[in-house]
Design a protein that fits this description.
The structure holds two protein chains of two kinds.
Chain A: H1 6-11, H2 13-34, H3 46-71, H4 79-98, H5 111-115, H6 131-155, H7 160-179, E1 191-192, E2 196-197, E3 200-201, H8 205-231, H9 233-243, H10 245-250, H11 255-281, E4 283-284, H12 291-304, H13 310-329, H14 334-348, H15 352-366
Antiparallel strand pairs in A: 1-4, 2-3
Helix pairs in contact in A: 2-3, 2-8, 3-8, 3-11, 3-12, 3-13, 4-6, 4-11, 6-11, 8-9, 8-11, 9-11, 12-13, 12-14, 12-15
Chain B: H1 9-15, H2 17-20, E1 44-53, E2 56-66, E3 71-75, H3 82-89, E4 97-102, E5 106-107, H4 113-119, E6 121-124, H5 136-143, H6 150-155, H7 160-172, H8 188-201, E7 206-210, H9 218-231, E8 236-240, H10 244-250, E9 253-258, E10 261-267, H11 268-271, H12 275-280
Parallel strand pairs in B: 3-8, 3-9, 6-7, 7-8
Antiparallel strand pairs in B: 1-2, 1-4, 4-5, 9-10
Helix pairs in contact in B: 5-8, 7-8
The structure holds adenosine-5'-diphosphate and magnesium ion (MG).
């Protein structure tokens, strides 16, 4: 039995490999972007830097979903909503940083509010003048929503496909609300035309690289956090809730508390991913709440492989890379490709790519050419 | 419908909870999950319990008491309501009518499954329901009595004492060598024992054991019998079984259920000579 505390989670092999690979890639890209001259063949464009940053945000979002779906058995089809809420919280800060550089030049109000003839900043925009409060809001908005939603749903024992449907309804309802101008978040245009963050121009290469590194740090931190949690007794109880909720209840666990815990944490992680995403792509609009986004997210995790954490990260990066390439060639077919991918993975690779890889590895190990005595499937006995 | 040696009907009536403890009855006082008060003569009081499924009465006016430390065997043909009775005790099924108390104060018809488990009622299900992906040891860890909240599960490490306790419980059921195997890979009999070990980790006062020997070899059956007998005394143990021979080898007091109510109750030799019981079990040889 592995009982991890935070230290062992930081130093175990999976974490080391994960962090090593992640930062090698990120630092390499950063150096090739900043230090290599633009006309060199080795130069990495700012577009690529931002693209990689975007992928890492998606990876963090996928990690969050894996925590609830892979480990908790809660198939949320609304996780895009938490991502978008974190994104809006950051977007509001970036809007306030524009100051009087907007089209209307109003120093006190964002453009869309001037356009709507609003006279003063609504109360829920007040925190967005401060970066610290914004960070708080990034976690608080999705966390609070997940907590209230989860409290109601898990307490009434809504599970399975019903839960999936209401999470989908949640994100849909939020999308409709954010589309409305009077809701106060820029309506269907959303928030955009950002200028700078903490005084640094968002157009500058150095800022883009810094955002990429910040995203990598967040992803690594979240990975270690999730390793710690899933390796602790909390993680084992969560798995037990996934595999036999009523049995776990008979063992004295308030299973709804565990689900709520993991669901809320996951929503906060998703919100952080959204907050890192918005300054890199430069816009947040209600389309981020689209139910389709949440479903795509599920496909990433399914493709990578559930309940492994790194599977989700690999799935998110691969599928999104595929999407970038694919939509460049024939954009209208992407949804079909995505659907086909999901069906194929569900039917042929229930454990995802990670499961496939570990199967292949096992098979290779199990049939060493000279060893004749490998009929036994495995020998799990280890001296205690 | 009576307990011939220990409890004449008149005495039984005075022990009816609703007469002795009327001020404490549900509805008068909010029932809080809490400590077991086991000072009474019995640890479990089931009175006039009726459970219907779409009009079919799975339990029909069932009255049954269990003493502290007692090993009680429940027999009865398939569909007699044995599992349903355990469902009522563990809060999984709510009775349409009747009262069910654990100790003097805990109203089992109103407590949640979790509270009932915490209060000290452990159940081994008819089908083994161990967690297949967790190892044998992890299954015990899951079952272990103690703080059950998510924060404690994250932050409180397992102590050496708890480790020893898990190991010795695994040893009790003979599974120490399998501690690191996934429970799904254990044999059927081993799963049954693992599940008994899990129930023991909850430090229950009352152990409900539903058909423990199904699918076991002879030797395993024998060991199970010894195990259950060794558990009685410290715990009250309620065993549901079909197997007459097994019951005879372990039983003190036997309750026969039939069509949802008690057909007979008493020592095994009395019960198996009871004309009503023989009739119900016609075809099954009670004597041999
Ligand atoms: N959830 C249920 N819905 C409908 N009928 C049920 C349900 N549970 C049990 N029954 C019926 O109640 C009767 C008693 O079942 P059970 O308690 O499982 O019997 P036993 O354990 O003694 O074999 C059976 O006839 C069974 O079909
Ligand atoms: Mg049964």
């Amino acid at each position: 039995m592995r009982h991890s505390d935070l230290k062992t989670a930081l130093t175990d092999r999976a974490a080391k490999v994960f962090i090593g690979v992640l930062f090698s890639a990120v630092i390499l890209v950063a150096l090739l972007n900043l230090l290599v001259p633009v006309d060199s063949a080795l130069h990495v464009s700012s577009y690529t830097v931002t693209l990689l940053g975007k992928y890492l945000c998606y990876a963090l979002l996928a990690l969050a979903l894996d925590l609830v779906w892979g480990f908790g058995g809660i198939l949320s089809l609304g996780h895009g909503a938490f991502f978008a809420l974190g994104g809006y919280a950051m977007g509001m800060y970036l809007m306030r940083q524009i100051g009087d550089r907007g089209v209307y030049g109003n120093p006190n109000l964002p453009d869309f509010m001037v356009f709507l003839n609003w006279k003063e900043l609504p109360w829920y925009w007040q925190a967005s003048d401060h970066f610290g409060l914004t960070l708080l809001l990034v976690g608080l908005a999705p966390g609070l929503l997940a907590f209230v939603f989860g409290w109601l749903a898990f307490r009434s024992r809504v599970t399975g496909v019903y839960l999936s449907i209401i999470t989908q309804a949640l994100t849909y309802a939020l999308m409709l609300a954010f589309f409305r101008n009077e809701f106060g978040f820029g309506g269907n245009n959303g928030l955009t035309d950002f200028k700078d963050i903490l005084g640094f121009s968002l157009q500058a290469d150095s800022t883009r690289v810094a955002l990429l590194i910040a995203t990598a740090l967040a992803l690594a931190g979240a990975f270690v956090l999730c390793r710690w949690i899933t390796g602790s007794r909390l993680g084992r109880v969560t798995l037990a809730v996934r595999d036999g909720e009523s049995r776990a209840r008979f063992l004295g666990y308030r299973t709804e508390h565990y689900k709520l815990w993991i669901f809320t944490l996951s929503a906060v992680l998703a919100g952080i991913a959204g907050a890192l995403y918005v300054p890199q792509v430069g816009i947040i609009n209600p389309g981020e709440f689209s139910p389709l986004n949440s479903i795509e997210l599920v496909v990433w995790v399914a493709v990578g492989g559930r309940a492994t954490l790194y599977g989700a990260v690999i799935g998110a990066i691969l599928v999104n890379y595929g999407k970038t390439v694919f939509t460049g060639v024939m954009p209208e077919a992407w949804l079909f490709a995505l659907g086909g991918l999901f069906v194929a993975v569900t039917v042929f690779l229930p454990q995802g790519l990670v499961g496939l890889a570990s199967d292949l590895l096992k098979r290779k190990r199990r049939t060493p050419p000279t060893a004749p005595q490998t009929t036994n499937k495995e020998s799990p006995h280890e001296p205690a | 419908m009576s307990r011939p040696d220990s409890l004449p009907n008149a005495v039984r009536d005075t022990f009816r909870r609703d007469q002795v403890f009327s001020p404490l009855r549900s509805g008068v006082r909010p029932v809080q999950p809490g400590e077991l008060d086991a000072r009474g003569k019995y640890i479990l009081y089931m009175e006039e319990i009726t459970v219907s499924f779409d009009g079919f009465k799975a339990l029909n006016d069932l009255t049954l008491y269990i003493e502290p430390g007692e090993l009680r065997c429940i027999i009865g043909p398939n569909g007699a309501g044995k599992s349903t009775m355990m469902d009522v005790i563990t809060g999984k099924t709510r009775p349409d009518h009747g009262t069910c108390y654990f100790g003097q104060t805990l109203d089992l018809t109103r407590l949640s499954e979790t509270d009932i488990a915490t209060a000290g009622i452990g159940r081994k299900f008819q089908k083994p329901t161990v967690f297949p992906e967790h190892t044998a040891l992890e299954n015990l860890e899951l079952a272990m009595a103690g703080p059950k909240g998510p924060w404690q599960a994250l932050l409180a490490p397992i102590t050496g004492e708890q480790r020893d306790w898990m190991a010795s419980t695994l040893d009790t059921v003979g599974l120490l060598a399998e501690r690191d195997r996934p429970a799904g890979a254990l044999s059927h009999g081993q799963k049954q024992w693992l599940e008994i070990a899990m129930v023991l980790m909850q430090k229950p006062r009352l152990l409900l054991v539903d058909e423990p020997i199904a699918g076991m070899t002879r030797q395993e059956v024998e060991r199970t019998g010894e195990l259950l007998q060794s558990l009685a005394g410290e715990h009250s143990v309620m065993v549901v079984e079909h197997d007459m021979e097994f019951i005879r080898s372990i039983a003190n007091t036997v309750t026969v259920l039939h069509q949802g109510s008690v057909l007979a109750e008493g020592r095994m030799q009395d019960v198996q000579n009871d004309a009503k019981v023989i009739e119900v079990y016609l075809g099954e040889n009670v004597e041999s």
